[in-house]
Amino acid sequence: MPDVPSGAETAAGAVHDAASRLESLITALPQDARREKALYHLERLRRAFQSSHQEAVRFAAFTVNKTVHDAAADWGAEVTAAVDVLRESLRRAGHEF
Asked: Which of 19, 45, 62, 70 has its CA 20 to 30 A from that of 91?
């Protein structure tokens, strides 16, 4: 019988996929302080999520979300949409911010 991922594994995979997509979009942007801040906090978010640290997930997710939305005019709708997908995947995994 094949292994069927649990709901938690599926949710974790969605968070990982959304974070990877956002990271690839941000990495492609011109290097500046906002980009570096978003990448730094995105990595912190990944680590916090992997260790199930609720407060750290909330803080890092909030910071990534704010950084992207503050830069939305320069970074474009695709990056903003990717952070929205990340936020929704986190919500489905039980993390609100």
From this structure: 70
Q: Which residues contact 64 (CB under 8 A, 6 or more apart)?
A: 22, 38, 41, 42, 45, 83, 86
pLDDT(46) > 80:
yes
Q: Which of 87, 83, 75 is nearest to 23 (CA)?
A: 83
Is the distance from CB of 70 to CB of 86 less than 8 angstroms? no
CB-based burial label for 2 (10 Å; 0-12, 13-18, 19+): exposed
DSSP 8-state code for residue 29: S
| Token representation of residue 57 | 């997930």
pLDDT tens for each residue of 63-93: 999 999 999 999 999 999 999 999 999 999 9
| Cβ within 8 Å of residue 38, ≥6 positions away | 26, 64, 67, 68, 71
- Examine the pLDDT at 3 and tell me if it is beyond 80: no
